[in-house]
Amino acid sequence: MIHISRSLPLPRPELVIRLESDASYTNIYYKNQPRPVLMSRTLLHFQRGLPSFWRVSKSALVNPAYVVGIVREDKKYYVRMTDDTLVLIARRRQEETLAALKAISQSD
């Protein structure tokens, strides 16, 4: 019988652009990979291990190092990432996400 460890190593934060949930799985989008990597862990598992990442919605976690800005379309806010994807910001998280982006832009 082969024992497989229950713990999966966390991805290196500097290589991860964003994470998106897919039920009890998480798609991890890496900087230099065209396709996401599917992991059998929830987004909450990764959120706890990547405290510098922003939880912008129930289904998305973004790396602030890869955030280009905020886009507003049809009364909705999106985070624009360096790979030109738009990640929807939940209404409940808009204020905190906008404040975090403002704090980062002022520190630059």
Short note summarizing the structure:
The chain is of the alpha+beta class and 108 residues long. It has 2 helices and 8 strands.
Written account of the structure:
By secondary structure, the protein is of the alpha+beta class. The protein has a single domain (13-107), classed as Beta Barrel (OB fold (Dihydrolipoamide Acetyltransferase, E2P)). Helices cover 19% and strands 36% of the residues. It has helices spanning 43-49, 94-107; strands at residues 16-22, 25-30, 37-39, 54-57, 60-62, 67-73, 76-81, 86-88. It has a five-stranded antiparallel beta sheet, covered by helices on one side. Strands 6-7-8 form a three-stranded antiparallel beta sheet, with helices on one face. Mean pLDDT is 90; it is low at 1-5.
